[in-house]
Design brief:
Elements lengths: L1 E3 L7 E2 L4 E9 L4 E15 L11 E18 L2 E19 L16 E12 L4 E10 L16 E10 L3 H12 L1
Antiparallel strand pairs: 1-9, 2-4, 3-4, 4-5, 5-6, 6-7, 7-8, 8-9
């Protein structure tokens, strides 16, 4: 679920898709580093497909994102923090019936995003995990709009379910089968 801060129009968080892959490097007994490559949709909601209303507004921003997270592991629970870099691959700003609140050509979206992530999660077994992460961009989504007190930033809560594939274990099993 994501939203953009400092909007002139009333917006709602957007429930959006995130998908990708990640890998971990064990640093010590309790610490790991996790790098991800994810396709993620950010923006604002407000459009109701079943009952569109005049003036409904929504913003859709698609990114390729690479968070680098440091994780502290305690048995089945982990805590994570770290930066994320993203590249904008698609954007769309829409309004039903009314004009857009500001001209997208005069206030283009930034093609990059730099964010900070903070989260926690639970590892149920060797293959499955669930996590909750807060993310907030440190760079504005676009330059400051007229009549706003500050530029807009991406802000989100990510609930993720992950399945781990261990390549090391599969190689060991293959060598045992070959013997």
């Amino acid at each position: 679920m994501h939203t953009i801060t400092s909007s002139l129009v009333k917006t709602k968080p957007i429930i959006a898709f995130m998908g990708g892959m990640w890998f971990q490097i064990k640093i010590s007994k309790s610490w790991t580093m996790q790098s991800e490559l994810a396709y993620i949709v950010k923006g604002t909601g407000g459009y109701h497909p079943d009952h569109p209303k005049y003036g409904d507004y929504w913003l859709h921003l698609s990114y390729w994102e690479v968070p680098i997270l440091f994780q502290y592991n305690m048995k089945n629970v982990y805590f994570e923090f770290g930066p994320g870099l993203a590249a904008l691959i698609n954007s769309g700003e829409y309004s039903i019936g009314g004009a857009l609140p500001y001209d997208t050509f005069l206030y283009p979206f930034s093609t990059k995003d730099f964010s900070f992530n903070l989260g926690t999660g639970y590892v149920s077994n060797e293959k499955w995990r669930v996590g909750l992460r807060l993310t907030h961009s440190l760079l504005p989504v676009r330059k400051q709009l007229p009549e706003t007190s500050q530029p807009g930033y991406n802000r989100g809560i990510v609930l993720a379910v992950g399945r781990q594939i261990s390549f090391k274990a599969s190689r060991t099993r293959q060598s045992q089968v070959m013997e």
